[in-house]
TrEMBL record:
One of its GO terms (molecular function) is dipeptide transmembrane transporter activity. The chain crosses the membrane at residues 100-121, 133-158, 170-191, 212-234, 240-263, 270-291. It comes from Tistlia consotensis USBA 355. GO terms for cellular component: plasma membrane. It is a multi-pass membrane protein. This is Peptide/nickel transport system permease protein. It is found in: Cell membrane.
Length: 311
């Protein structure tokens, strides 16, 4: 188990380092941040002074080495716009994103798991076709378009919900629906496939042959075995939730990490953008690591195979 854990941790560390490296070079090769931060008529002396102040006058390899050393000390840099600690700015916005992501996650589970299970148990019937058609529609609908439709209907026409903002449960309704629709749709389709796969296994047919009730077969045999791939899916979606909230947060003016990322990119605020990318990468990698560990704990065969392949 220790070897299994060490291999996963090493892979996670290399993945985060790769994301940090990519963000660093892409941001610096995409143009001079001073062009976006300072007035267009700024004198050359002022531009050069700020380049020296921010270390942008140094060769790119030296900047990268200094960046890695700073990360090793837990220093994510400071905002080029207001001089505040970049990590502190991201942490301030993390609460709003976690609130939205947690609500979306709960909504997706409450809708997707029952819908996918019912569709699998009633395969080929009208309820199955109706559920899967709704899932395909929900998955295909672009987030920004669904968000705009909800604003037009519930905010502008019916005047039941605020169109943007943060602070009350009413502000959370439309962003959660917008972001949660696609997640619930994907989860319903995934649960249906997983449950159908388990229903076709010999041990399920044996359980039915022992005259166990349908509910007992589902609870004792179907759900535990169908849960393993579903846990994998949920872990991936949980990690991607922060990155996927970028569009939704900007449509509804939700003050989370996604909105901060868009604003910081427009301002060419290098330290803040790099920190947001790092936070998203760490969240995705951590979720995947948690899934790997949970998978190995639920099914020891995965743990043994992972350790053997690592050697």
């Amino acid at each position: 188990m220790l070897r299994f854990l060490l291999v996963r941790l090493l892979r996670a560390l290399l993945t985060v380092l790769g994301c940090a490296t990519l963000a660093f070079f892409v941001l610096r090769l995409s143009g001079d941040p001073l062009v976006a931060l300072l007035p267009t008529d700024s004198p050359a002396e002022l531009l050069e002074r700020y380049r020296v102040l921010w270390g942008l006058d140094r060769p790119l390899p030296e900047q990268y080495l200094r960046y890695l050393l700073a990360l090793a000390r837990g220093d994510f840099g400071r905002s080029l716009v207001d001089g505040r600690d970049a990590l502190g700015l991201v942490i301030e916005r993390a609460g709003a994103t976690l609130q939205l992501g947690g609500t979306v996650f709960a909504l997706a589970i409450l809708i997707g798991v029952p819908a996918g299970t019912v569709a699998a148990l009633r395969r080929g019937r009208p309820s199955d076709y109706l559920t899967m058609s709704a899932a395909i529609f929900g998955y295909a609908m672009p987030n920004f378009f669904l968000g705009l439709l909800l604003i037009l209907l519930f905010a502008m026409q019916l005047r039941l919900l605020p169109s943007s903002g943060y602070g009350t449960p009413a502000h959370l309704v439309m962003p959660a629906i917008t972001l949660g629709t696609a997640v619930a749709a994907k989860l319903a389709r995934f649960v249906r496939t997983s449950v159908l796969d388990v229903l076709g296994q010999p041990y399920v047919r044996t359980a039915h042959g022992k005259r166990l009730g349908s509910l007992a077969v589902i609870v004792r045999h179907v759900f535990p075995n169908a849960a393993i791939p579903v846990i994998t899916f949920l872990g991936f979606e949980l990690g991607l939730m922060i990155g996927g909230a970028v569009v939704t947060e900007n449509v509804f003016g939700w003050p989370g990490i996604g909105q901060l990322l868009v604003v910081s990119v427009a301002r060419r605020d290098l330290a803040v953008v790099q920190t947001v990318v790092m936070v998203i990468a760490v969240s995705v990698v951590s979720a995947n690591l948690a899934v790997d560990l949970a998978y190995g704990w639920i099914d020891p065969r995965v743990r043994v195979a992972g350790g053997r392949h690592a050697g």
